[in-house]
Amino acid sequence: MGIRVIKTAIATIAAIYTAHYFGLEPPLSAGILAILGVEVTRMKGLRSAFDRFIASVLGLFFASLVFTVFGFEHWAVAIFILVTFPILSRFNLKDGIVTSSVIVFHLYTFGEVTVSNITNEIFLLIVGLGCATAINFIYMPKDEKVITVLRNEVEQDFATIFMEMAKTLRDPKHIWNGSELLGAYRVIEEGSLRSLRNRENRPWDHENYWPTYFEMRRQQLDTIQQMIAELALVYDKLPQAELIAVLLDQLATDCKSVVYQGLVEQEVFKLMVEFRAMELPKTREEFELRAALLTLLHEVDRYLAIAKRLKKKATVPKKGVV
Question: In a 10 Å sphere around its CB, with 0-12 CB exposed, 13-18 middle and 19+ buried, how is residue 206 labelled?
Fold first, then answer.
């Protein structure tokens, strides 16, 4: 917020001095337009400036018609609003309604529709919105360092979750409060917002992976929640549980890998084959426990499938896959 206030101040004073230099009236109005044009991202600022400019030109057109037909009466302004605002909303130019009103009220103050007055208003738009757009493009705060910190936090939360799940498989009486789940959710949400803003600030960076990364983690967190739901059904220790615990230990390490290679996926496939080759359960309780373990293993496979689809692919052999 502090950076945006500073940018707004710079854009406003630049617009006022520029308008004064070119003899536009009133120059302070260019400052008002600049205030309206400063946004939080480069792309949003560019879209906002375009929408506001088009809306204001349309507003000038309709206002010129209304004032020419009905005169410069107070009630004519109400007619302008009734005619213009619904049209701007219909064409998704609602952001330009305020800007358009500022320009039209200037025209009303002049008391006549002339080429000179229309030209003055259009140049006020160009100066005000142009200065705001220029300031937006000159500087935007960088989120890369913060996003990297958020990535490390969510990966550490995932690693802790997998380790706690492995401990529970080895000892069903193990108690875990699950706080990392809430922490991961919070970090993923913040990371998603910051990554989208980072992409809008760098539209030329076509290799910006961060939005995809946090979307991947969001989907994987859903599968982790399903794993935990199945884990809650495992109330006794089984040999098969130890096999999955070893796999989860590996996931706790490999979830911090940058790229996907598929090695853990192969281990999951081997484990599923082993499960099919084992003797059938002898009791109902064993059947229920093994069914929960098998479902948990399928959720692990789904977690890996998400990584396979959305994670960066390895270009050179590296250890670690998810």
Answer: exposed
Beta strands 259-260 and 312-313, pairing class: parallel
Query: How far apart are the C-alpha atoms of 7 and 16, rounded to whole Å?
Result: 14
How confident is the model over 34-82, as pLDDT tens digits?
A: 998 888 777 778 888 899 999 999 999 999 999 999 998 999 999 999 9
Cα 306–Cα 312–Cα 316 angle in degrees, nearest 5: 130
Distance CA 252, CA 131 (A): 50
Q: In terms of Cα–Cα distance, which of 287, 295, 280, 181 is closest to 236?
A: 287
Q: Where are the domains of the chain?
A: 2-138, 144-313
Q: What does the alpha-carbon distance between residue 130 and residue 48 come to, in Å, rounded to a whole number?
A: 11
Query: pLDDT tens-digit profile of 99-132?
Result: 999 899 988 988 888 999 999 999 999 999 999 9
For residue 62, what are the contacts with CB-CB under 8 A and spacing of at least 6? 80, 83, 84, 87
Tokens 């999951």 belong to which residue? 268
Band (322; pLDDT cuts 50, 70, 90): low
Span 144-313 CATH architecture = Up-down Bundle (1.20)
- Mean pLDDT rounded to a whole number for the chain: 86
d(CA 48, CA 38): 9
Taking CA atoms, 234 is separated from 151, 226, 231, 283, in Å, by 31, 13, 5, 15
Give the pLDDT confidence of 212-250 residue by residue, as tens digits. 899 999 999 999 999 999 998 888 887 888 888 988 998
